Amino acid sequence: MTRTLMNRTRLHRTRIGALAALLVLSSGCKDFLDVNENPNAPQVVSANLYLSPMLHWMTTSPQLDGRFVGRYTQQWSLSSGVTVLSTWDRMGYDPSSDNGAQQWRDVYWTLGQNLIDMMNKAEAEQRWDLLGVGHVLKAWGWQVTTDLHGEIIIKEAIDQSKFSFNYDSQEFAYQEIQRLLTKAIELLQKNDGAVDAAYLGRTDKIYNGNRDKWLKLAYGMLAMNLNHYSNKAAYKPAEVIAAVNKSLASNADDPLLTYPGTQNDDINFWGRTRGNIQTNTTGYRQTQFVVNLMNGTYTGGVVDPRMSRMLAPAPDGVYRGLDINVVGFGALAAAQQPMNFHGYVGTGGLQQKGRYIFDDKAKLAVMTYAQLQFIKAEAAYRMGDKATALAAYREGVSSHIDWVNARNNDNGQTPTQITPAEKAAYLAAPSIIPTSAAGLTLTQIMTQKYIALWGWGHNELWMDMRRYNYTDIDPASGQQVYPGFTPPTNLYPDNGGKIAQRIRPRYNSEYVWNRAGLEAIGGLALDYHTKPLWITQP
Amino acid sequence: MPALLLAPLGVGAATAQAQAAQPRTVTGRVTSEQGDPMGSVSVIIKGTSQGTMTRVDGNYTVRVAVGQILVFRLIGNAPEERTVGANDVINVTLRRVATQLDAMVVTALGQTAQVRTLGTSQQSVEGAAISETQRQNFVNALQGRVAGVEVTSSSGVPGASSSITIRGVSSISSSNQPLMIVDGLPLDNKTLNTGVLASDAPGSATAFSNRGVDFTNRAADINPDDIESLTVLKGPEASALYGIDAANGAIVITTKRGRAGTGGFEYSSSIKMESTRNTPELQRTYGLTSNAGFSYFGAPYAAGTTFYDNIDGFFRTALTQRHNLAFSGAAPENRINYRVAMSADKQEGVVPNSDYSRINLTGASQSQVNRWLRADLSMQYALANNNQAYKGDNGPLIGLLLWPQTDNAKDWLTPSGNRRRLTTAAASGEADNPYFNVGKNRINSKNSRLVTNLGLIATPFSWVNVKSNIGMDSYTNENSILRHPESVYGNTYNGVLDEANDITRNLTAQTLVNFERYDITSDLSINGLVGNQVSDFKSTTAALKGQDFLDPNFVSINNTNLRTNRTTLLQRRLVSLFSSATLNYKDYLYLTGTLRNDWTSTIPQERNSFMYPSISGSFVFTDAFPSLKQYLTGRLRGGYAEVGKDARPYAFRPSLEYKTTSYGGYGYGFTGPNLGLKPEFARSYELGTELGFFKDRLGVDVTWYRKQTKDQIVNDIRGSYATGFILFNLNGAVTRNEGWEVTMRGTPVETRMIAWDVQANFERARGKVLALPNALPESYVSDTWLFGNVRNGTAPGLSTRSLTGLFYLRNNKGDILIDPTTGLPLRSTIFIDGGYDRQPDYTIGLTNTFRHRRWTLNFLVDIRKGGDVLNATEQFLTARGLSKRTLDREKPRVIAGVLRDGKENSATPTQNTIVVIPAVQTQFYTSISEELFIEKDINWLRMRDITLRYQLPRGFLRTRDASVFVTGTDLFLITNYSGLDPIVNGNTAAVGGSGASGIDYGNFPMPRGFTFGFKVGF
Question: How far apart are CA B877 and CA B401, in angstroms?
Answer without folding.
Answer: 8
